Amino acid sequence: MKTKAMENGVHDSARADADDLPDTATTAPLWQRLRQLTAARIGLPRSGASLATEALLDFRLSHARARDAVHAALDVDALRADLLPLGLPVLQCRSEAVERHRYLLRPDLGRRLDAESRDRLLSCGQRGLDLCITVADGLSATAGQQHATDLLNHLVPLLREQGWLLAPLVLLEQGRVAAGDDIGEALDVKCMVMLVGERPGLSSPDSLGAYMTWMPKVGRTDAERNCVSNIRPQGFPLAEAARKIAYLADRMRTEGCSGVRLKDENH
Q1: Burial, 78: exposed, middle or buried (Cβ in 10 Å; 0-12, 13-18, 19+)?
Q2: Continuous segment of H or E residues that includes residue 214
Q3: From 141's CA, which of 1, 9, 57, 133 has a CA 20 to 30 Å away?
Q4: Mean pLDDT in residue range 2-28
């Protein structure tokens, strides 16, 4: 049975804890300064036990943008037109996932080229070159649509300066990372740079990842790849990401490997 003193002790402790809580009015400027440094949702205003209306609507908008990015279709014709000034042939391919709904339900199908696309690569007349760049929709077609062209405008000149013989650019619909192994094997290249839309977050529906594999072939594991992630203006800036990709490609050529065996010493 609780005594009066015990009850008073509990009440006094709770009151003391409440007195220690920061006053919202005096800490608001601090949260405003911190929010300028991150896209994370910190110090959100509340109304009673719920988020304030503005913060709640902002959350719902971000959630809708992330969902839209997952279901968006890659505008291949527009992207192809944007990439042609790079001076490389552009080939269009598809995975075995025939449409978006099936792609999301069957990840395995997105990791393999369909037969028609494989035949197109085998008969393209430009096999056996050094490096292939593939742009895939992944889980955010928005990422490739918005950032792939600008990234490649930085990256392709760097690769040419390093002396790489570049295979045709490949635009892959309904594609996942491992499909790059299928493409690389069909084109018989030494290095695959797979640009793919990453799983959207609430603050990053347009994040592009570059997955790089030395001597790509069907059956490679993720441990045999290197990744440059969060490529977007608000994340890893495109020009810096291009320099990092070119650096890793050069290291792969020198060391003859990729993935966990390749150490990134350029920090």
Answers
A1: exposed
A2: strand 208-214
A3: 57
A4: 47
